[in-house]
Amino acid sequence: MGSALDYNSFMPSPDFLETLMTLPRVLFARLSPDRRWLAYVWANVGANYDVYAVPADGSAAPVALTQTPELTWLVDWTPDARAVIVEEDHDGDERVALYRIDLERPGEMQRLTEDRPPYYIRGGQLLADGKTLLYGANYDFEKGAVIEPTWMVLHDLETGARRAIGRPAKPAYARPEANKAGTHVLYPRADRHAAGRQFHLIDLASGEDRELLHYGDHLKTTARWLDDATIVFTADTETHTRLGLHDLKTGQTRWLLDDPARAIEDFRITPGQTLVVEEIVNASRRPFVLDPAGGAETPFPRFPGNLLPLGQNTAGQWTGIHYAANRPPDLVRFMVNGHAEPTIFSLTGMWERARLTPGDLAPAESIAWAAPDGLEIQGWLYKAKPNPRRAVLYIHGGPTSHSESNLNPQIQYLVSQGFNVLDVNYRGSTGFGLEFRERIKEDGWGGREQDDIAAGARKLIEMGLAEPGRVGVTGTSYGGYSSWRQITRTPPEVIAAAVPICGMTDLVVDHDTTRPDLRPYSVEMMGGAPDEIPEKYAERSPINHVQNIKGALLIVQGGQDPNVTPENMRVVVQRLTEHDIPYELEVFEDEGHGIVRPANRIRLYRRMAEFFDRALGPA
Asked: I need a surface site. Which of 321, 350, 507, 582 has the fewest CB within 10 A?
């Protein structure tokens, strides 16, 4: 029935990094429609990410549904709960194929779509008839041509016929969702404004496609099915995010939460139609169950770290993902009502597999500091012992995301090698309310959020955790871009070394070569397209400031990255050479947007620690 989490200490492996990279981490999970199984993505148990399943009551050990060298990700359960839909790409190129895997035949991947398609697939839901697959694709199947927008597609698995049922005019990330009955489809559009998101409803019987949820051209909505005729959704205002309920039968909308003082970040509908709301306060989760009828809120018990509830199993026990900086994300079960001190049980037996304990890992301490304009910025501090008086700033990607108290192997290894680490939640991060999230748009990418980051370095120096000239910076994606911005604009006595990973170097190149569904994000964040505000794109592009670099530089790139393409690396290397700026380069040809294979991470983290050790001086 699962094992209670044991936090007793024992001696770690002599090679901390290799041991760290065998620590299993649950990255994503879904409870089956019958509430009997949990399917999930597990990292560090194979050569790449794989999909597993485990009984939701903990009555048996996990079963590997996939075991491949490629990145395999869980997409959805089939309606009968007998199988899952997964996606798999090649070397991180994101050109995924969809597969079905039956629980009774683990390892047998039944391919549903072609391998290595020239387009990008979004989602993959099997409808109630058991033979129709719903997904988004930037492809016109009638003409056999790649297109910019993502169209909604019905794929008949028996005949192979594919029919577009929703045709947005402009590109956007769009993953469609059908109701349980398979009569209607919800999907998002961004045709009105690059910053906005409105939801459309398709009637599969009539073919009608109409806009359903629109609360401002430049404002975002997110919608999901509560039942066949009821939709739960969030809608941004100018000041906060509201949570609403829309009844298709009556056409009426009712607001469930509409409070500017509350940071409603997300919600989910669990199997059994329970509404779980994610309120995040200072980058920490505060989930609760919300009764749509009466409005009653039932908070979940507080455990060390964070809890992501997934739903109740058939015995009425809750399941979820539990994690903290020194506790890898794990599938757990627990009770909510009737227990003064609820106990949390592991469903995977993760700690029985692990050769590390929480005591071997650095905890995260929340600290705050003031940006130059007075805005309060939060971050997670990881201290090495004894104090090495040198540090690394870790910058999360997005930028529309945030760092939590969550296990980060890169941070943990740097701490073990004698670096204090500060994980920065700069303006533009989620986790602090809508106003804080939107502040990055006041300047656009590369503006005052970079001052927030540099102020974090100065805070470390002020606290005696680093000396001037002994602070480095690293991050992936937008964190990589921020690393470029820091090394090209911040004095070396504040930022002395940078390791940008898959980071944008030329914002025009990035806009023109990235996936079509990501271009609107650049336009939203910059306040216009490159041809509309060319001077701003030029000023904010690190490639145009490499002549200012005084510190050490190690560039890291995934060779198959479709998000921040290798063209970003190629053009900046050429510019660095022209200006005779020294740099080091590490390219992973079998990786995409980020380095994910455990073997490659070991190689990268060792190289990074050795680089920072040379650049910042020994501990």
From this structure: 582
Strands 177-178 and 184-189, by their bridges, are antiparallel
31-64 burial: b if 16+ Cβ within 10 Å, else e: bbbbbbbbbbbbbbbbebbbbbbbbbbbeeebee
DSSP 387: -
Q: Is 274 inside a domain boundary?
A: no
DSSP letters along 329-360, please? EEEEEE--SS-SS---EESS-HHHH-S--GGG
Q: What is the pLDDT of residues 9-34, one digit of tens each?
A: 323 345 899 999 999 999 999 999 99
Supply the pTM of this predicted model.
0.95
Provide the pLDDT for residue 343: 84
- Helix (H/G/I), strand (E/B), else coil: 256: strand
Number of domains observed in the structure of the chain = 1
Identify the pLDDT of residue 341.
Answer: 57
* Cα–Cα distance, 449 to 71 (Å, whole number): 32
Spans in the chain with pLDDT lower than 50: 1-13
Q: What is the spatial distance between Cα 41 and Cα 92, in angstroms, rounded to a whole number?
A: 16
Question: Vertex 430, ends 481 and 214: CA angle to 5°?
Answer: 110
Flag whether 452 is in a domain.
Answer: yes
Distance CA(193)–CA(586), nearest Å, equals: 38
Residue 367 counted as domain residue: yes
In 3-state terms, what secondary structure has residue 605? helix
How far apart, in whole angstroms, are the C-alpha atoms of residue 510 and residue 564? Answer: 6
CA trace torsion 366, 370, 376, 379 (10° rounding):
-30
Q: Are 617 and 496 in contact (CB under 8 A)?
A: no
Residue 341 domain flag:
no
* Contact by Cβ (8 Å): 38, 347: yes
Please report the pLDDT score of residue 257 as a whole number. 97
How high is the pLDDT of residue 4? 32
What pLDDT does 1 receive? 30
**Nearest to residue 120, comparing CAs of 91, 144, 99, 151?**
151
Q: Which residues contact 364 (CB under 8 A, 6 or more apart)?
A: 324, 325, 326, 380, 381, 382, 405, 423
**Domain of 577: which CATH number?**
3.40.50.1820
DSSP 306-325: EEEEEEE-TTS-EEEEEEET
Distances (CA, A) of 489 to 390, 461, 569: 20, 18, 19
Beta strands in 376-436 (DSSP E): 376-382, 391-395, 420-425
